[in-house]
Protein: Glycosyltransferase-like KOBITO 1
Amino acid sequence: MPNYYQQHQRATPLLSSSSSSSSSSSQSSFAAKLLLLLTLLPLSLALLAFVLQWKGDSALTDPTAAVSSTSRWAPHGSRIQNHEVFPGMELSTLSPKDHHSSSSSSSDCVNLGRTASPSFPYYRDWKFDFESNLKPKICITTSTSAGLDQILPWMFYHKVIGVTTFFLFVEGKAASPDVSKVLESIPGVKLIYRTKELEEQQAKSRIWNETWLSSFFYKPCNYELFVKQSLNMEMAIVMARDEGMDWILHLDTDELIHPAGAREYSLRQLLLDVPGNVDMVIFPNYESSVERDDIKDPFSEVSMFKKNYDHLPKDTYFGMYKESTRGNPNYFLTYGNGKSVARIRDHLRPNGAHRWHNYMKTPNEIKLEEAAVLHYTYAKFSDLTSRRDRCGCKPTKEDVKRCFMLEFDRSAFIIASTTTEEEMLNWYHEHVVWGDKDLKMKLLRKGILTRIYSPMDECRFSFPQNNCETWSMESSFRVKKARLPVKLK
Structure:
């Protein structure tokens, strides 16, 4: 019989082996559980992200959600709140069927994405917080026939610098169903179509009694546009007052406000600092000076501008005048008198497309020393033919005088109508493109030419090319037909 010591010695290895086996099994189980946890955790996070994204997309396409969203952001007194509207503003839910014979169900965003031109991402966050107590409230009015590729970057840029509301008097491409349904879906945008009813109401306007404008009446092309802009500006004043706006500005879609001199890059901040007794603020214009003939998107490709003479020393302006014009008729290719922003006052009236006035008093106005309007004129080579195609005048020196106010426009129209594309390109290089590096450097040093990158950088950041996110317009502004048009005040 073995004694106790011998029995204990034989039992000890067995216990040790059992303990070792149990420890190994425990470690293996723990590793398996850890591996399973590490596998399930990222899968769970991915599933959660998918669910959240799916819910976000369904909110975009859900008509009820869209109505709620646009209602929340619709400015006070807008069409969604059943205010009476001007003729031309009563539209259907999605597309202006009362004014167009056909409509398209595809988003214009998709069409833009299929082209080589810069496309615009329809961000859901277009709904800037402009219904807060931010002051002052600024609106822009324009008369346009442009497409989305031009209107949307122009509009987004001005929203970023503080513009609240846009009154768009649309014709041509801008009034087409594919374009108008996108524009109508953007909060703060009011579209007015050129209907027969609108023309009948504008025919009763007191603008037709203005003697200073009478020489423009019943003439084609630019003269007709100038009168039409004045009539539209008159209506925009009434609409701006009804919307509670503080300032109104008339701009074309080839112009950007450059709020230099403000404490921040903001038109709102710039106008906030204007004394209360000032009725109008004049922004001298700078003119784009393109350096290539293949510009596609001027806002993001052009950085060089010719300064306005109001922002130059007189000896510099007159001393360098000949070199600045390069044989063109005037210092600027087109206009040079800038644009003005008007405070909404009683008896406010338009004074042409560039100024505002008052029926009862002489306005108190100031001219800004740094801020400007950036005018992208003839920035694309195709501008030659597009201007030609919009006007039916004969390409003769006599006939163009009744169509165009400015000598350069007249020359450009004749060239575009009577020469080959190669000859047009040569003329464009000679009169528009700044290809002489030595001359550019000389005028840049003198301060006649200047580099401005702020709008260029903003547009590059905001509008990446060929990156278009479809934005559902299923429940655009719901418009109720007005019984009577708003009368001019």
User: Anything to note?
Assistant: DSSP finds 16 helices and 14 strands in the chain. The chain has a mean pLDDT of 79. The CA atoms of residues 219 and 402 lie 7 Å apart.
